[in-house]
């Protein structure tokens, strides 16, 4: 989506209704009545564990060991020396990221998400723009993607944040990178078992991603899937316009509204 902008505070989440989109965009299907739009299916634990096992993984191995447990294990294995846990080998700088001059406003963004820290991240080329409110004033900063997300890709084609776990996942091509916000370092730290190539059973290459009704949705043109980034599995697949009627083809962020499934918020405007 092309953006006309000037370097003033960011305006995020421009609300568009499906009725408007349907009437003004010729390549969208007619909007169904609200009661004909299906809800995304919720997968029960038994079915989810079956999917995980079919992918060759053990669903009982998810629990993270506490810091004390990891230390005790290191001492048991080699009491005369300290073994560095695998997590410490990941690229996780403890200093704040180095900001860049914002320069000219990008005319196009590749991906947008609102992080678990309440800040909005807009990706354009090899840069990420951070926007947030402080003391009632709009703040903004620019970083190299690999500076804010050390260990991540140089460019991003899609991004989403899981509101329950707080994990932000970057996608580039068929690679996914999971990150968690670190308040002390004021940057994102890469999560365990990242990055990953999308499971070979996943046939989509995400061009957009967002959270919808508790699901992480990956769009690939007329097809979408719900995706579990931790287990790297597809939990559901269907036609985009069946579940998201009126969604624009270049949507970058979406959020389900409590009273309507026919509204999308797309963060694509800066002023």
Offer a few descriptive terms.
globular, disordered N terminus, 271 residues, 17 strands, 5 helices, alpha+beta
Mean pLDDT: 78
Work out the number of β strands.
Answer: 17
Structural class: alpha+beta
Please describe the biggest sheet, giving its number of strands, its sense, and whether it closes into a barrel.
Answer: 5 strands, antiparallel
Give me the Rg, rounded.
20 Å
**Run of helices and strands:** EEHHHEEEEHEEEEEEEEEHEE
Estimate the strand proportion: 25-35%
In DSSP terms (H or I, runs of 4 or more residues), the helix count works out at 5
Kindly, what is the distance between the CA atoms of the first and last residues, rounded to a whole number of angstroms?
15 Å
Residue stretches low in confidence (pLDDT < 50, at least 5 long) are 1-30, 79-86, 257-271
- What is the 3D shape? globular
Put the structure in a nutshell.
The longest helix has 11 residues, at 67-77.
Blueprint (SSEs and pairs):
Layout: E1 10-11, E2 14-17, H1 18-24, H2 45-54, H3 67-77, E3 111-114, E4 120-124, E5 127-134, E6 137-144, H4 145-148, E7 158-161, E8 168-172, E9 175-182, E10 187-190, E11 196-197, E12 208-212, E13 215-220, E14 223-228, E15 233-239, H5 240-243, E16 263-266, E17 269-270
Antiparallel strand pairs: 1-17, 2-16, 3-4, 4-5, 5-6, 7-8, 8-9, 9-10, 9-11, 12-13, 13-14, 14-15
Describe this structure in words.
The protein is α+β, with helices and mostly antiparallel strands. Helices cover 13% and strands 31% of the residues. Strands 7, 8, 9, 10 and 11 form a five-stranded antiparallel beta sheet that branches. A four-stranded antiparallel beta sheet has the order 3-4-5-6. A hairpin with a 4-residue loop joins strand 9 (175-182) and strand 10 (187-190). The longest helix is centred in the first third of the chain and has 11 residues, at 67-77. The protein is globular. The two termini are 15 Å apart. Residues 1-30, 79-86 and 257-271 have low confidence and may be disordered.
